[in-house]
Design a protein that fits this description.
Layout (H helix, E strand, L loop, with lengths): L2 H26 L5 H43 L3 H17 L2 H13 L5 H25 L3 H18 L5 H10 L5 H15 L9 H17 L26 H37 L5 H46 L3 H17 L4 H13 L6 H25 L4 H14 L5 H13 L3 H17 L10 H30 L1
Helix pairs in contact: 1-2, 1-11, 2-8, 2-10, 2-11, 3-5, 4-5, 5-8, 5-9, 6-9, 7-9, 7-18, 9-16, 10-11, 11-12, 11-17, 12-14, 13-14, 13-16, 14-17, 14-18, 15-18, 16-18
Length: 502
């Protein structure tokens, strides 16, 4: 796919979000700051579009082919121990380098002073590495994806029973936070590479879903060893950029967040790309056989991915997070104090944003392309995105209700996962694997940053305060499990009906 086609796709995904936020900002938030944060949001949105376009092009050129080659090369060595050890190391390194995890660990540390950030991060990385290893072993042994997921989530529920209640939302959030813009393409590509060697591409999906179990379980176990000295819920995100004084230059203030975040985002981007590039060099020396043309293509892909990720994160941190926080506070305050139409508007905004914003996630596009390719076009990207959008919309809508009313996250997670387990019985295996992969990719960097800031703002403006900081990402990760498996049920019924008429 060329650059212009990708630009068109990303623009069609992000621009509707920008339009909604700009309209709500003009109608709801009337303060002296409005022109400035709306202007910064617009600039951030444009940067996000161009960054996402370049990033996805880099994934196509370098990251995905490298992952597939690594998985295939490890399989051809016919050394199970080498494959599993490599899977663990890859999962661990990529996870602790993921920017989303660094931000998430900082947020948890602010809420619980007894949490050691390094130990917490390493626990998440170890969980990802171990379950990535288990996921690849499942592919090799051709174990049913439904059985593996069922056993894994039963372990989660048992661990959650013994874990500290305040860590349940954190644990399930960590499963979504690990699936960032670098982790997902690499994990899925390795799964495809391993499956391709076994000539079983239909069994390639599910690795991301299985891997996402690891950080949840590891954080639940970690919580059992953390002292009970929580400092209280995390407060709403601080807005960036400040208030522009009357004498300040408007244009300079609009672009000031880019300058302020430049070095920080550059460091995060390097931290995300560097471990994967080092692994590529190591695999290239000891394992991969590539022509000079292929190697140059992969290196160019890494450069594109780095530049795109940098621009993407600059856009998100310079405009989207602030806008989400400000809008959330305004809507949450009005819904709590005035009720009625404002409450409906808050939930409706959550539903609309959830339906649209998931389509702007980098990993969602990677997954949808692979699904259409592996299924030979039988599963259309458009249909997958529709069901994924519906699931995410419901998740954000429920998160808005919870942010204002305030109730335990288990009231939503437990029945949701029970329903997902029930749908396993009537959904085809392929769709179950895709569903659990979708749960991970839906809660990527854009969803996590904007939706989390929007929900934090809502909780701050509503009567729940900071009570509902954790659990939002978990809901976004859970709903696609139900929506995509239901899509699989409808797909199987349609297929049976067509075969019945032949």
């Amino acid at each position: 796919m060329n650059l212009l086609e990708k630009l068109k796709e990303t623009a069609l995904s992000v621009i509707p979000v920008m339009v909604i936020v700009l309209i709500l900002g003009l109608l709801i938030e009337h303060t002296a700051e409005s022109p400035y944060w709306l202007g910064k949001f617009f600039i951030g949105g444009m940067l996000l579009i161009f960054g996402l376009t370049i990033f996805l092009l880099g994934v196509d050129l370098g990251i995905q082919p490298m992952g597939e080659r690594c998985g295939a090369a490890l399989m051809k060595k016919r050394s199970l121990s080498l494959l599993l050890i490599s899977a663990f190391v890859i999962g661990f390194i990529v996870t602790i380098a993921e920017p989303d995890i660094q931000v998430f660990a900082d947020t948890v540390k602010k809420a619980f002073n007894s949490v050691d950030k390094r130990a917490f991060t390493y626990a998440i990385g170890g969980g990802v590495g171990f379950f990535m290893m288990m996921g690849i072993l499942r592919t090799i042994l051709k174990l049913p994806i439904k059985l593996v997921l069922l056993v894994s989530y039963l372990l989660l529920f048992v661990a959650a029973y013994f874990a500290k209640p305040e860590f349940v939302g954190i644990a399930f959030d960590s499963g979504g936070a690990t699936t960032g813009p670098m982790t997902v393409p690499f994990i899925m590509a390795i799964g495809l590479g391993v499956s391709a060697v076994r000539s079983d591409t239909s069994n390639s999906f599910g690795l991301t879903g299985v891997t996402s179990v690891g950080p949840v379980l590891s954080v639940l176990i970690y919580s059992m060893f953390v002292a009970d000295n929580a400092e209280g819920a995390v407060q709403a995100l601080e807005t960036q950029g400040g208030v522009c004084s009357a004498s300040s230059n408007y244009i300079a203030m609009l672009f000031s967040p880019i300058k302020e975040n430049f070095s920080h985002v550059l460091h995060e981007s390097i931290q995300s790309i560097a471990p994967l590039f080092v692994m590529f060099i190591i695999f290239r020396i000891f394992l991969l056989k590539m022509t000079m043309r292929q190697m140059i293509r992969v290196i160019i892909g890494f450069i594109y991915a780095f530049v795109g990720l940098f621009i993407f994160l600059i856009g998100v941190q310079s405009g989207f997070m602030q806008a989400g926080d400000i809008l959330g506070q305004a809507l949450g305050h009005n819904a709590n104090t005035l009720g009625g139409i404002w409450y409906v508007l808050l939930v409706g905004t959550g539903l609309l944003l959830g339906a649209i914003i998931v389509c702007a996630e980098p990993a969602v596009w990677v997954l949808s392309e692979q699904v259409e390719q592996v299924s030979g076009g039988a599963i259309k990207r458009k249909a997958l995105l529709i069901f994924l959008s519906i699931g995410t919309a419901l998740a954000i809508g429920l998160a808005m209700i919870r942010a204002v009313v305030g109730f335990p996250v288990w009231y939503l997670l437990l029945p949701g996962y029970i329903l997902a387990m029930i749908l396993m019985r009537i959904s085809p295996d392929l769709f179950t694997g895709i569903a659990f992969d979708s749960g991970g990719v839906a809660s990527g960097p854009l969803t996590s940053t904007f939706v989390l800031s929007f929900t934090l703002g809502t909780a701050s403006g509503g009567n729940a305060g900071g009570n509902d900081t954790f659990g939002v990402i978990a809901l976004v990760a859970m709903m696609p499990l139900i929506a995509i498996q239901f899509m699989g049920y409808l797909y199987s019924k349609k297929k049976q009906k067509v075969l019945g008429h032949e």
